[in-house]
């Protein structure tokens, strides 16, 4: 059975890059060496692998990669930190959770 990886790397400019591969070690080496000059990470090295998950179903891995690419920075950081409460909070529609109030109720 093949294994696939969805991963997030943190770039030297503090941005995140989300990718998909069937060989994480090789892909990280490609990113680090700057194999592709037109790749997002080429001018953002060095890179740090901050999260990855393994999958056995290629279609599921691709779907998760696309989903994460559409997430906000704070949602990606909640995933990286495994802060499930924040991840759930940030997954809700803004109108469902509203602004966090800076005033307290008496």
Automatic annotation (TrEMBL):
Residues 2-78 form the GIY-YIG domain. CDD domains: GIY-YIG_UPF0213. InterPro entries: GIY-YIG_endonuc, GIY-YIG_endonuc_sf, UPF0213_domain. It holds the Pfam family GIY-YIG. Belongs to the UPF0213 family. PROSITE patterns: GIY_YIG (PS50164). This is GIY-YIG domain-containing protein. It comes from Flavobacterium cheonhonense.
């Amino acid at each position: 059975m093949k294994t696939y990886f969805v991963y997030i790397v943190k770039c030297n400019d503090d941005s995140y890059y989300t990718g998909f591969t069937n060989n994480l070690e090789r892909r990280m080496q490609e990113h680090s060496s700057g194999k592709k000059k037109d790749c997002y990470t080429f001018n953002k090295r060095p890179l740090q692998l901050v999260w990855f998950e393994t999958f056995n179903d290629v279609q599921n891995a691709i779907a998760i990669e696309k989903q994460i690419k559409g997430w906000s920075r704070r949602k990606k950081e909640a995933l990286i930190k495994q802060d499930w409460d924040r991840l759930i909070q940030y997954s809700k529609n803004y109108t469902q959770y509203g602004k966090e109030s800076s005033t307290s109720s008496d």
